[in-house]
Every structure is written in structure tokens, then in C-alpha cells.
Design brief:
This protein is α+β, with helices and mostly antiparallel strands. Helices cover 23% and strands 32% of the residues. The chain has a single domain, classed as 2-Layer Sandwich (60s Ribosomal Protein L30, Chain: A). The longest helix is centred in the middle third of the chain and has 18 residues.
Length: 128
């Protein structure tokens, strides 16, 4: 099955040797997004809620470039420097997702790229 590379200037460009997303058939594998502002490639200024929203906005842009939306997310991984922020992730996530919610994992990590406090990646399943 052929792979299609997904790219959009509405989300941060890759900061390493990876693609924003790869589509294989009707499945889209989205790379991790941190709260980078696409236009500046710098971390967004603001509190943790602002950072989480920026990550969801970045994921939204990549999902749309792949022909889908966050409603198509089957699996979401959330990486946090401080798992104490997990209730805030749930609160903000409710603004971006509705039932049925995707499967999800929350992982506490020691560090993230560029000193970010949050990163998320996702797998989408598009209608065939």
C-alpha cells in the first residue's frame, strides 16, 4: 500500500527527520505536536491551558490537511512533563472532542523537544 506524506503550513514544520503525518490507506499517523506557533516555530507564550490548546490546534491543522478532523482520531497519546496537568488536558480536550472519544494514553516524561511541557500525537481513521 502506498504511503502519502501529509504536510501543511498551518501547523509547525517538522523540526527533525520526520513528516507531519503519513497516510497509509485510510489511516493517518500524525507525528507529535508541541505548542509551537507555525509562523514563528517558537513555543507559544502563555499558561498550560494556552499550550494545550496550541497543540490541539496544530493537530487539527494536520488532520485537516489529511482530509479529516479531530473527530476521526482513533488514538491519542498525551505526553506531559507533569502529570498533574492531566485534569487540564481533560478539560481542554472536551472543547475539541465529543463522544465517542478516542482511545487515549497519558504518559509522564522527563523532557520534551524545545523544553515543551506537553506533546501529543494521534492516529486517525478516515472514511474509506
Amino acid at each position: 500500500m502506498a504511503r502519502e506524506i501529509i504536510s501543511t503550513d498551518k501547523a509547525p514544520q517538522a523540526i527533525g527527520t520526520y513528516s507531519q503525518a503519513v497516510k497509509v490507506g485510510t489511516t493517518v499517523y500524525m507525528s507529535g505536536q508541541i505548542p509551537l506557533v507555525p509562523e514563528t516555530m517558537e513555543l507559544i507564550d502563555g499558561n498550560m491551558e494556552t499550550q494545550i490548546r496550541r497543540v490541539f490546534d496544530n493537530l487539527t491543522a494536520v488532520a485537516e490537511a489529511a482530509g479529516g478532523s479531530l473527530a476521526d482520531v482513533a488514538k491519542l497519546n498525551v505526553f506531559l512533563i507533569d502529570l498533574g496537568h492531566f485534569p487540564l488536558v481533560n478539560q481542554v480536550m472536551a472543547d475539541y472532542f465529543s463522544q465517542p472519544y478516542p482511545a487515549r494514553a497519558a504518559i509522564g516524561v522527563a523532557a520534551l523537544p524545545k523544553g515543551s511541557e506537553v506533546e501529543m500525537d494521534a492516529v486517525l481513521e478516515l472514511e474509506g
